[in-house]
Amino acid sequence: MHMPPPAAEGPILEAEPTLQTSLLLKALAPEQWPVPTTAFPAGSALVGGAVRDALLGRLSPTPDLDLIVPDGALHTTRQLAKIYGGACVVLDEARDMARLVVQGWTIDLARQEGQNLEADLQRRDYRINAIALELGSSPRLVDPTGGLADLKAGLLTAVGEHNLIDDPLRLLRGIRIAAELGFTIATSTWPLLQRHSHRLSQAAPERIQAELTKLVEAPGADQAMDQLQSSQLLQPWSRLNAEAESGPGSQLEQQSSLLSAEERQLALPLLRLTQLLSDDGLKQLRFSRRQIHRCGQLRRWLSQDDGQSFASLPPEERLRLHSELAADLPALIVQLPAATQRQWLERWRNPDDHLFHPRSPLDGNTLQTELNIAPGPLLGRLLRHLALEQAFGRLSSQKVALATARAWLQEQGQASADAPASRPRCD
To answer: Which segment of 166-180, 234-248, 284-298 scores lowest on mean pLDDT?
Structure first.
């Protein structure tokens, strides 16, 4: 499966092999870490994402650090927490893995697996994550699987089939990493993701959720969605049809071209999750109630055939549409015809548009004071009525709004008075 090529090779990758270690150290700037490298046990090495991202020239100011120590990772983490004032979080006691959180940094320590560092790296998921920087007096770059070559080529290659099976979350992580970096999944690796896709359900739901949250925000998320569809990795939680000719993500970037960068950041991750996962799938993967609610509301309105149907909605339904989606309306707009997109975006970008940003011209406290109305369902209905009247331009001022509120309350009282009295039952 092909992804867009990486934007550019990092300067460290372009350097001579003899200079790469020193350039890598300069990029990582260990002197700025909250824990000095001398505090870690002899034989410790930095591995994983920090090394990879530094080599690519995309390292964050406070990267997450993953360290391999010869032994006693949990004990070491507890000691470092005491010395440097951080917190120790046990990640896996049986496998001797722990996390140090200190001064805004996250440092994970794990016991070396195998007889040496090279053996440990051979057990990792993908070659680009199997590059290590030995710490100590003579730092050394260790690359037993060919990760540096893959970084230069923009390839994502599994270290081995068994490594993926050993932790099935790595199947999904591969697609996520490729989406983040703009890498191509190697032709030798893609069949492995397909062959073992059913194993992903063995991973903890929270871990799957975390990967998907990163994936839908990645630059290559749309291609990744197509890959998720064809691999059926998400089949237990998905609403995708594996037999469809094209995936759900194939047109999203193009369809969202009228949105600003900020609007796309708001709309596309939510829309992707809604397209990828069913309501039950979101629940099973432990997404928050708020996220499930947002996806559910968007899904409900997306079930409309096209943008023309929204224009013909009764006023009450049109108000409900804009009230329910509120800040999430761009996710719906992306799916509308281009002409409708332009019109809706113009109105949504105007905070004074009372239909696209519905609200009552009078708040609840004012209505309670002026009309002697108590909090409760009746007040809520009145607020919705006033929001509706304002949304369709029938309220020119707060004075008119207050008069409208009084008239509505009188109508409600008359309706109650006109209702037939209930007859006593004769059992």
So the answer is: 234-248
| Dihedral sign for Cα atoms in the order 316, 317, 322, 326 | positive
CB 133 within 8 A of CB 51: yes
For tokens 């990029």, the residue is 27
Question: Alpha helices, DSSP H only, in 248-376?
Answer: 252-255, 261-276, 279-284, 289-302, 307-311, 315-325, 329-333, 338-348, 364-371
Give residue-wise pLDDT tens across range 248-266: 555 788 889 999 999 999 9
Distance CA 323, CA 332 (A): 13
User: What is the CATH superfamily name and number for domain 1-153?
Assistant: Beta Polymerase, domain 2 (3.30.460.10)
Q: Angle at CA 44, nearest 5°, toward 42 and 50?
A: 150
**Are β-strands 87-92 and 45-47 bridged in parallel, bridged antiparallel, or unpaired?**
unpaired
Q: Are 335 and 304 in contact (CB under 8 A)?
A: no
pLDDT in tens, 157-172: 999 999 999 999 999 9
Q: What are the residue ranges spanned by the domains of the chain? A: 1-153, 364-413
